[in-house]
Amino acid sequence: MNTFEFAYEQNVAIKRFAEAETVTSCELSRFLRKWGGHPDYEVEYIDRVIDSLVDLNVQYYVGLASTERFDHLKALVKAVEVAFRMKRWEWDLQRKTFWRGYPLFFAGLSGMIEDLEAIRFHAAKLTPIFTPRVVLVEGESEKEFIEALQRAIGLADLRFETFTLGGSGALGSLAPYATEKRRTGTRLYICYDGDGNGAAAKQKREKLNRTLSPDGIFIFARDFESAFPADVMSDALNLYESRVLERAGLWSAPQIEELHKNPLPFAKALEQHSGLSINKRELGRLLAEVLINRDRTDIDVCYGKGWIEDFEIARFLAFLTNRDSA
Question: What's the rounded Cα separation, in Å, for the pair 109 and 207?
Answer without folding.
Answer: 40
